[in-house]
Amino acid sequence: TIANGPLRTVFELGYGDYTVNGKTIYETKTISLDYGQNLSKFSIDIAGVENLSAGLTLHDNLGETTTNMSEGWMSYWEPHDGSELGQGLVVENPKQLMAFDKHISDEKDQSNLFAQLNLENESVVYYAGFGWKKSGQFKTKAEWNTYLSNFAKCVQNPLILKVVNED
Questions:
Q1: Of 69, 66, 90, 67, which Cα lies nearest the Cα of 78?
Q2: DSSP annotation of 161
Q3: How far apart are the C-alpha atoms of 146 and 160, rounded to whole Å?
Q4: Which residues of 82-95 are buried (b: 16+ CB within 10 A; e: fewer)?
Q5: Fewer Cβ in 10 A, N or C end of the chain?
Q6: Sheet (strand 23-34) strand order
Q7: Is 122 exposed, middle or buried (0-12, 13-18, 19+ CB in 10 A)?
């Protein structure tokens, strides 16, 4: 645990080294969630691979997927518990997004929408989470997708402060 305060929770996961196709993989994830936000930040540091996949589970395949390559996000809007639920993933640097892949299975919770991500300096940052219609925050798929689009624009164009010293 790095931080556990009223505004932000941050923790780090370090994985034991593992071998895939003769290559040793080293991986650390730092995950943070800010109060009032729908998306958690995933900072992935990984050595031994050039790219990775991050995805959304499509559960019963009853919803609709949307992808936006230029803005770097994807979503899934589905019926859930007498309401509707939106899942989303936003890539901090859309240049690291190589493709979207959809895997469909007849088995529950085995279908996924993947973002194929290219690593830069052995790292990638993305945001993932959800919004629920019953919360009153998002009433439609269009509202959820607009949220993801706006979120992507914000993380890809961060506020820059310049301190001016007036001696």
A1: 66
A2: -
A3: 24
A4: eebbbbbbbbbeee
A5: C
A6: 3-4, 8-20, 23-34, 39-47, 123-132, 83-91, 73-80, 64-68
A7: middle
Tokens of residue 143, six digits: 């509202």
Q: How many whole angstroms separate alpha carbon 76 and alpha carbon 158?
A: 26
Over residues 37-42, mean pLDDT: 97
CB-count burial class (<10 Å; 0-12, 13-18, 19+) for 105: exposed
Task: Report how far apart, in Å, the C-alpha atoms of 94 and of each of 63, 89, 152 are.
Answer: 25, 11, 9
Tell me phi and psi for residue 7, to 5 degrees.
-105, -25
Tokens of 129: 């989470």
C-alpha distance across the termini of the chain, in Å: 41
Residue 9 burial class via C-beta count within 10 angstroms: exposed 0-12, middle 13-18, buried 19 and up? middle
Instruction: Tell if the pTM clears 0.90, that is, is over it.
Output: yes
- The mean pLDDT value for 55-78 works out to 97
Sign of the CA dihedral running 145, 138, 152, 13 = negative
Decide if 53 contacts 114 (C-beta within 8 A). yes
Q: What is the DSSP letter of 120?
A: B
27 in helix, strand or coil? strand
Compute the half-sphere exposure of residue 4: CA atoms within 13 Å on the CB side of its CA: 3
